[in-house]
Each structure stands twice: as structure tokens, then as C-alpha cells.
Design a protein that fits this description.
By secondary structure, the protein is mainly alpha-helical. It has five helices and no strands. The protein has one domain.
Length: about 80
């Protein structure tokens, strides 16, 4: 049982550190990164770099997901459960 508590503390500290850094980025930054990746992918496809276009074309989903997570953390906080207990 104590191992679970210790691992939970380490995860909370790690999560809090990441969230404090990503909270500095505005939500529009993630949206801009997604649109930038879409544009870069289209340009790479036009110039014939198909493999790179596919690689970069997979980034927008990750950027948008990070933006949604960032927005949720800003609104609700990630430690709401630990505060309730």
C-alpha cells in the first residue's frame, strides 16, 4: 500500500511540473502549431517529399489533443481528486 502512495506522490509532482510549464503556452499556441503542421505537410506533399509529408501530417492530432488537455487542466485542475480526499 505504501508503494502506491509513494508512486502517486511522484506522479503528482511530475504531472504538476509538466502542467506548470505547459500552462504558460496559450491555447491558441497549440491550435497554431496544428495549423502550421498541416500547412507544412501540404507544402512537403507539393514539393514531392511524400514520406515527410505523411510524418508531419500526423502531428496536428497530437497538438490538438495537448491543447484540449491544457485547457481542461486550466479550467478544472488535475489534482481535483486529491483535494477532495
Amino acid at each position: 500500500m505504501e508503494d502506491k502512495v509513494r508512486s502517486g506522490v511522484a506522479e503528482d509532482r511530475f504531472t504538476r511540473t509538466i502542467e506548470s510549464q505547459t500552462a504558460k503556452i496559450p491555447s491558441s499556441g497549440y491550435l497554431a502549431a496544428a495549423f502550421g503542421a498541416i500547412t507544412a505537410s501540404a507544402i512537403l506533399k507539393i514539393v514531392g517529399k511524400d514520406d515527410w509529408a505523411l510524418f508531419v501530417g500526423q502531428w496536428p492530432a497530437a497538438f490538438l489533443l495537448m491543447g484540449v488537455y491544457n485547457k481542461m487542466v486550466k479550467q478544472h485542475g488535475s489534482d481535483a481528486y486529491s483535494k477532495a480526499v
